[in-house]
Amino acid sequence: MGEEGMVSDVKNTARKSNPKLTLFPLIALIFYEVSGGPFGIEDSVRAGGGPLLSLLGFLFFPIIWSIPEALVTAELATSFPQNGGYVIWISTAFGPFWGFQEGFWKWFSGVMDNALYPVLFLDYLKHSLPIFDRMVARIPAIIGLTASLTYMNYRGLHIVGFSAVALAIFSLFPFAVMGIISIPKLRPKQWLVVDFKKVEWRGYFNSMFWNLNYWDKASTLAGEVENPSKTFPKALLGAVVLVVLSYLIPLLAGTGALRSSSSEWTDGYFAEVGLFIGGFWLKLWIQAASAMSNLGLFEAEMSSDAYQLLGMSELGMLPAIFASRSKYGTPTISILCSATGVIFLSWMSFQEILEFLNFLYSIGMLLEFAAFIALRLKKPDLHRPYKVPLQTFGITMLCLPPAMLLVLVMCLASLKTFLVSGAVIVLGSILYPILIHAKKREWMRFGGEHPPLPLSGDDLEGHSVVSQLGDQENEDEASFNLLSDSSSATME
């Protein structure tokens, strides 16, 4: 058998054992990485002193925040369609040190975010099963829930993707029903209510930001997507529309049909809205949907966190063990590492986790916007299958409003958040030279000596396929320069 035939067999075998993500599973994963449905947005009504600021927020924040971040992600994820996502973007623009820091901050933020979901799942269940309000049942339930969801991630990303599609349909359908049957009860003037004396700006901006961020997360598993240059832009567009509608329809229905005080709008209040609009059956359906939505949020977040570690390992930034895959094609050690972090962080309060992860996420996003502009200047000829149709000044103006929002969210953080986030930043700065020293001393084996193998030439559309047989003649400049820099200059 010739060399070409051997490469073909390797690719065909890999495709069968590691199926790629297609459009609808990717939309569902992005939806769950960003949103998961309207569960948790109730607090925006309370913190906003009424419906008006909440509705305006979910109308205009996507324009100044979600759409710019999605556009940046679409261009860079299609330009660098490998696992690791923003770690690769930052490393190419500013060097491997900052790429590692970006990866560490974003991974830590993601694991903190994921620690919320098993807790929220039990919080919904305890209304029907009060035993889960006791630590004697709560702790084993969190561990068991985390273990079972981790196993689903281990079995394959395509399973996670299609599970996310099913969970999204189940989670959103009761709100579509609620929106329809609420129409006769709507009083539009109630949407204009606001009491500025009751507005809590820190809570309001944190709620808006948390419910509309993480558009870039899916880029960490770009190497697992079928034909990413076409799939990513479509998936991001579909997810933006889905997220905005999933927030506005329930809010318009609930605030327009009920005369309740803004102080009553706390987490879980949509179940009471369902009871008023549709009856007890709709309340139970919404409670079940909210519980299941947390499972989808967990699965999507863990997948992104694990494949980010895998991508960093393939770049030589982490030991090679993080890139090891199971027989299902999933990064076993990376998944276990993320699951362990979730269990250890699940004891923290909701508001503490929310502020911490928002702060770390904000720092990382500022770096991503800077890298987006820098790459346009430093690599104007970089192959960009999807390109935001703006020149340098235009993309700078595109990034300015969300950057100002990021700075605002960070300025509103508490002193405790500054201290904890500062400790994480210092830890990342210390960890980087330790890993360099470990590689020099050969204390452990690192990846990155050879660039990762893209399994489909069609997926890259202009990016080269680096075969396991060592043929690197057609390797794309963006992939080659980054990987060689991060494996040699970074760790050697």
Automatic annotation (TrEMBL):
Localization of this protein: Cell membrane
One Pfam family in the UniProt entry: AA_permease_2
Chain segments carrying region Disordered: 456-492
Transmembrane regions listed in the UniProt entry: 21-41, 53-72, 84-101, 137-154, 160-181, 235-257, 269-286, 332-350, 356-377, 389-412, 418-436
Stated family: Belongs to the amino acid-polyamine-organocation (APC) superfamily. Polyamine:cation symporter (PHS) (TC 2.A.3.12) family.
Membrane topology: Multi-pass membrane protein
Compositionally biased residues, Polar residues: 481-492
A GO-annotated cellular component: plasma membrane
Keywords: Cell membrane, Membrane, Symport, Transmembrane, Transmembrane helix, Transport
Domain of life: Eukaryota
Protein name: Amino acid/polyamine transporter
GO terms, molecular function: polyamine transmembrane transporter activity; symporter activity
InterPro entries: AA/rel_permease1, RMV1-like
PANTHER family, per database record: OS12G0580400 PROTEIN (PTHR45826:SF17), POLYAMINE TRANSPORTER PUT1 (PTHR45826)
